[in-house]
Structure formats: C-alpha cells, structure tokens
Amino acid sequence: MRKFFRTVLDKIPTAVIVVDDKLRVRFTNRALLDYFGTQARKGVMRDLISCEEPSKACGEGVRCRDCPLRLLFLSARNNKGSAFRRIVLNTKDGGARITCPFRVSPMGKKYMVAIMENVQEAEITRELYSAQSIQQKLLPPPHNWDGTPYSYMYIPCRAIGGDLPDVYQLEGNTMGFLADVSGKGISAGMLSAFVKAGWNKSDVSPSKALRGLNSKFQELNLDESNYVTAAAIRIDNAKRQIRYSLAGHNAPMLLKSGSGINEIEMNAPPVSNWIPDFGYEDQFISYRKGDILVMMTDGIIESRNPKGEMFSLERVEEILRKAESAETFIERLRASVTDFCGTFSDDLTAIAFDLQ
Questions:
Q1: Measured in whole angstroms, how far is the alpha carbon of residue 82 from the centre of its chain?
Q2: What pLDDT digit, counting tens, does each position of 4-38 carry?
Q3: Do 210 and 247 touch, CB atoms closer than 8 A?
Q4: CB of 119 within 8 A of CB of 132?
C-alpha cells in the first residue's frame, strides 16, 4: 500500500514534501525533483534547497534559523496546525531561483506535508526563467577583441525583452545590428528570436540583409500591429567609413566627432507588412579616428520619470558629448537613465563603438 500511495503522489503535478517531527525529510515526490533538480527523495532540508551554511549538520548552523523551508515547518509545528510561506528554491534550468508558495498541514501526530500552491503560476515562472536564460545567450559578448571596440547596455523592462543587439565580424569589418520588435514580454521575445534567426550575417550590405529579413517576415503572415524597427551598420576601418541602413528606427544613430554630434536618420518603414517590397538602401558616412558611434532603441529617449518627463535625445547627446570612450558613455547612460526614471515601461538598449 505504501508503494501505491508513493506512485500516486509521483503522478500529481504539484510538489510535495513530507517531514517528520524532527524535521527530517521523509519523502519528496517526482514533481519536486523535476521542478528543482534535486535528487534527494529523503534526508535533510539542505538537500532540497540552495544552502550556504558551512555547518556540517543541517539545522545547527547560524544561518539555519533563517532557512525558509525550516521556518515553514516550524511555524506549522508551533501553531499545531497549517502554515503558509513563500520560499525560494533553485530550478534545474540554469539554477534560476523562483519563489514558490507552500502550505503545510499536519499528517497525523508525527508527520507534516507541504504542498506547493498555484502550480501553474510556478510553472509559468520557471518557463520564463528558462526563456530568459536562452535570450541572454542571444546577446553579443560584452567586448570586441578582434575588431572595432564596443560596449553596450541591455535592460529589458520584463523578464523577456524585445530588443536585440548584435555585433560580429565579416571580412575583417565590424558589423552592428540593433532591432526593436513591437510588443513586450513573451510575444516580443519570440519575435526577437525570429529576427535573430532571420538575419543573414553573410551579407556585407546592411540594406541587403534588411531586405532579406523583410522578405522572411512576410512569410509569418502577421497582422499590421507586428513589426520590427532596425538599424544595421558596417564599419570599414581601412576607408574610415560607415555603411548603414535603417528600417523605421525611431531613435537616430549618433556620431560624435571633433565638430560635434551628427544625428544619422533615414526615412524608411520598419520590417513589416506595411510596404512588403520596400527597397532598403545603403548610405555612407565618413568618420575620424577617435569618433564614437551610438546605436540605440527608442525606449531610452522615450523613458519617463514619475513626473511624466521624457529622458529625451538631448540628455543622451549631453552624455555622449562628455564621454571619453564608448565604455564611459554606456556606463554614464545606464546610470543617468536609471536615476532619472527608476523603473521602465519599455526595453532599453544601446551600443557604442570606439571608431579606429
């Protein structure tokens, strides 16, 4: 009969933990193992959660008194009834830490059982962390050691972002790409993954790559509320020339030179179903060694503080005007926009290049 009930508990989708009166773990079901990656069917509590307590004996260390799982069962035992607490456990997907609501109830005089509530909410949270981990892998390295030096910031307003920065090398030149998909959250994350897969890194012409992306976008057959704004560049160090093309990118690119800041704009629709066969074209602009090139999404200049004031393009240009390098510009931009706005309603992304 014990084996039968163990099988039943393993079949239910919610996590279950059973402890005895000495707070020793006597049983965990398959859902707990699957959610949190633990291999411990029974044992001590430190086998179930992330524990940094150096003491060898579970429950006897200094940090044990603050253990959320231990406090949950202690509360139920001291109250001689049920108890509820949200505890943080590590998932098996990259060790992501998520908050899970557990309710404890007595099971006879010797045992207590904790059952995770709101299973669907916990599952969604776990999937979001997994998707966030995947999306982080789509980001470029923090620095470029082979080509034009760069630095960037990427601040999604939700767990899943809709901005997509990328920097890569092609035929000895540095290529930059920055896309901003419509919407937010999971749907935006899925569309940004499509953009990542649909962008042809072998095209030396930014406009040709945009035309190819636009053609692939048509195959999705999405409605007009779905679109992608994008900016693509090729930095030719030998010619000291920037080759670029824009697709409805609301925020202009900025080029800081000895004569000031040049706002680079281009009238072109986003990648969308609005004008399916639009012919994107390349434009060229020269630069001098020591100039800084900036690409950014409109979430930066359109971010608002609690008073409703926009961060504005003027503030970005002022930060760029005083920046000594791409890295200092990104650091000061991040600090300034965070201090100005506090929280964000849109994704914020910028890439800055130290032109050689």
A1: 37
A2: 888 888 888 888 889 998 888 898 888 887 776 66
A3: yes
A4: no
DSSP type of residue 312: -
Q: Are 249 and 230 in contact (CB under 8 A)?
A: yes
Amino acid at 290: G
Helical spans, DSSP H, in 62-118: 68-79
Residue located via tokens 């035929």: 171
Q: Give the tokens for residue 61.
A: 């260390």
Give dist(CA 175, CA 166) in Å, integer: 8
Q: What residues pair up with 304 in beta bridges, in sequence order?
A: 310
- Range 261-280 burial, b when 16+ CB lie within 10 A, else e: bbebebebebbbbeeeebeb
* Phi, psi for residue 107 in degrees, rounded to 5: -130, 85
Judged on CB neighbours under 10 Å (0-12, 13-18, 19+), 302 is: middle
CB 282, CB 224: distance < 8 Å:
no
C-beta separation of 325 from 308 below 8 A: no
The alpha-carbon radius of gyration of the chain (Å, integer) is 26
Residue 249 has pLDDT above 90, yes or no: no
pLDDT by residue (tens digit) across 104-137?
988 888 899 988 876 556 566 666 666 666 777 7
Return the percentage of the chain with pLDDT > 70, whole number: 88
CA dist., res. 320 & res. 313, Å (int): 11
Q: Which amino acid is at 125?
A: T
Among 41, 19, 45, smallest CA distance to 30 is for 41
Q: Report d(CA 18, CA 24) in Å as an integer.
A: 8
